[in-house]
Design a protein that fits this description.
Elements: H1 4-14, H2 18-27, H3 29-35, H4 37-52, H5 60-65, H6 70-81, H7 88-94, H8 100-110, E1 115-117, E2 124-126, H9 128-139, E3 148-153, E4 165-170, E5 173-178, E6 184-189, H10 193-196, H11 200-219, E7 230-237, E8 248-255, E9 261-265, H12 266-269, H13 274-282, E10 299-306, E11 309-317, E12 320-327, E13 331-338, H14 345-370, E14 378-379, H15 392-397
Antiparallel strand pairs: 1-2, 3-4, 4-5, 5-6, 7-8, 8-9, 10-11, 11-12, 12-13, 13-14
Helix pairs in contact: 1-4, 2-11, 3-4, 4-9, 6-8, 6-9
Bound molecules: zinc ion (2 copies).
Length: 435
C-alpha cells in the first residue's frame, strides 16, 4: 500500500487544481477512492461510505482527548515520517515510553481514529484524521504564530498608482497595503509553514499563488478548507470611499460545512478561465503575472443586471478582447471573443455593454434554461475570502473599497466579517479579497 500520505500531500497542494477537485467532488465515488489515499483511512468506516454515503462522527472532545499526550502525538508524527509503515516495535523504540505495555496503551487510544493497523502486516498507517493531525503538527497550524515586519512589494497600488506597496505578516495573516495612500489592499490568512522558510518577497509570491488557487477552487464550488459545497452570489457593494464610483460587484461565497467565507471581485473568480488564459497566452503573457491584489487595467467589470445579477467581465489585450458573462451562482454563462476589437473598451465597452445588455440578457436566460451545464458555463464562486477570523482587517480600516484595480471594474474585496453587510466590504482591495 502506498502511503496515503503521499497522495495527500500532493493533493493538498494541488488544490490548485481546482478544476479537478471540483470534478472529483461532484462526481464522486470513483474518484474519491482515488484521491484517497486519504479516504483510505476512512477505510475502516469506509468503503461503504463512498457509495452509500454513510457518515460516522466522533464527539470532538473524545477525538481531541485521544491526542492529548506527548507520546501519542510523537507516535502520529513517527508514522507520518516513516519511509514505510512501521511496526509496533519500530514505534516503541522511537518513543519515550518506558514499557511496551504503556506504549501499547497509548497506541490503542489512537487506533482506528488516527492510526490503522494492517491486519496482515501488523504495520501502522495513518488514517485520514491521523494524516491531518500529522500535517498540522508539522505545518505549525495549531502551534505556530508568525509575524514579519512590512517589506516593500513590487508593483503599483491599484488605488493611487504609487509604487509603495508593502506586505506584512501578523499572526499568520498576510496583509498587502499601500504605504502611500494607506489603503489596505487585502489581508488573508496564510499558513505559518508558508512563511517559515521563505523571505518576505517569496512569501508574497507564494501567498498570491495560494489564494489564487483557493479562489479558483471556491469558484468551482469546492471549499478550499474542507471540500464542502461552496455557494456564491453576486453582491453589489457601495464604495463610498471612492466618489463617483458605482457599486461594485463582488462575489460572496461561503461553505456551509465549515463556515469558510470569502468575498472577492467578480474578475478574480474568472481569472483562470480558459478563454482568459488563452488570451494572455496569445499575447505572450500570463495571467499569473498579475497578483491577486491588482489584476491590472486590462480588466473591466460592467453590471448588466441586478435582478438577476449579471456582470460582464471584459479582459482586453491589444486589439483582442474576451468578455465573460457571469451570472449569479456565480456561473460563467457565456464567453465572447473579439479579436481585434476596438481598443478602448473602457469607455466604449461601457456603451456597448448597455447596448447589448438586453440581447445578452435574453441570451443568457435562454442558455440558463437550456442547461447550465452546457459548455460555456462554468461555476465561479469567488472567494475573497474572508474567513471569519481574519475578518475585519480590511474591513476596519480599509475604507476604501474599491479600488478597482482592475480596470475599473475591479472590486474590492473584503473580508468579511459580515458578509452581508455593506460594511464589510470595505476592503479595498482591488480585486481581491480578504478573508
Ligand atoms: Zn496607494
Ligand atoms: Zn468548508
Amino acid at each position: 500500500m502506498t502511503r496515503t500520505e503521499t497522495g495527500e500531500d500532493s493533493e493538498t497542494e494541488t488544490t490548485a487544481a481546482s478544476g479537478e477537485t471540483g470534478t472529483a467532488a461532484a462526481s464522486g465515488e470513483a474518484e474519491t477512492t482515488a484521491a484517497s489515499g486519504e479516504t483510505g483511512t476512512a477505510a475502516a468506516s469506509g468503503e461503504t461510505e463512498t457509495t452509500a454515503g454513510e457518515r460516522e462522527t466522533t464527539p470532538a472532545d473524545d477525538a481531541f482527548a485521544a491526542l492529548s499526550d506527548e507520546t501519542r502525538l510523537a507516535a502520529v508524527s513517527a508514522v507520518a515520517a516513516a519511509d514505510e509503515p512501521p511496526t509496533f516495535t519500530d514505534l516503541f523504540e522511537a518513543s519515550d515510553a518506558d514499557t511496551s505495555a504503556g506504549f501499547a496503551y497509548h497506541l490503542r487510544q489512537l487506533t482506528d481514529r488516527y492510526l490503522r493497523k494492517d491486519p496482515e502486516t501488523e504495520r501502522y498507517e495513518l488514517t485520514y484524521a491521523g494524516r491531518a493531525v500529522a500535517r498540522a503538527l508539522d505545518a505549525g497550524t495549531f502551534t505556530e504564530r508568525v509575524d514579519r515586519a512590512p517589506t516593500g512589494v513590487d508593483g503599483d497600488c491599484p488605488v493611487c498608482g504609487a509604487s509603495a506597496l508593502a506586505a506584512a505578516v501578523v499572526d499568520n495573516v498576510v496583509a498587502v497595503a499601500c504605504r502611500d495612500c494607506e489603503t489596505d489592499l487585502l489581508a488573508l490568512p496564510f499558513p505559518p509553514g508558508g512563511v517559515r522558510e521563505r523571505d518576505t518577497a517569496d512569501v508574497v509570491e507564494a501567498f498570491d499563488a495560494y489564494h489564487r488557487r483557493r479562489v479558483a477552487l471556491a469558484a468551482d464550488g469546492v471549499c478550499p478548507d474542507c471540500a464542502g459545497v461552496v455557494d456564491g452570489a453576486i453582491d453589489l457593494v457601495e464604495t463610498p470611499a471612492l466618489p463617483g464610483e458605482e457599486p461594485r460587484p463582488l462575489v460572496a461565497a461561503g461553505c456551509e460545512s465549515c463556515g469558510f467565507h470569502l468575498r472577492v471581485p467578480v474578475s478574480l473568480t474568472v481569472v483562470e478561465h480558459p478563454a482568459v488564459v488563452a488570451l494572455f497566452d496569445r499575447h505572450g503573457e500570463s495571467v499569473r503575472n498579475r497578483p491577486v491584489w491588482n489584476l491590472g487595467p486590462e480588466w473591466h467589470e460592467t453590471v448588466l443586471s441586478t435582478e438577476p445579477p449579471a456582470v460582464a467581465v471584459t479582459v482586453s489585450l491589444g486589439e483582442d478582447r474576451v468578455r465573460l458573462l457571469v451570472g449569479d451562482g456565480p456561473t460563467v454563462v457565456d464567453v465572447e471573443r473579439d479579436e481585434g476589437a476596438e481598443r478602448d473598451e473602457r469607455d466604449e465597452g461601457a456603451e456597448r455593454d448597455e447596448r447589448d445588455e438586453r440581447a445578452e440578457r435574453d441570451e443568457r436566460d435562454e442558455r440558463a434554461e437550456r442547461d447550465e451545464g452546457a459548455e460555456g458555463s462554468e461555476r465561479v464562486d469567488g472567494e475573497v475570502a474572508s474567513e471569519r477570523d481574519g475578518e475585519k482587517r480590511s474591513g476596519d480600516d480599509g475604507g476604501e473599497e474599491s479600488s478597482a484595480p482592475v480596470g475599473g471594474g475591479g472590486a474590492s474585496a473584503s473580508d468579511g466579517a459580515d458578509p452581508s453587510a455593506s460594511d464589510s466590504e470595505r476592503s479595498s482591495a482591488p480585486p481581491d479579497a480578504s478573508q
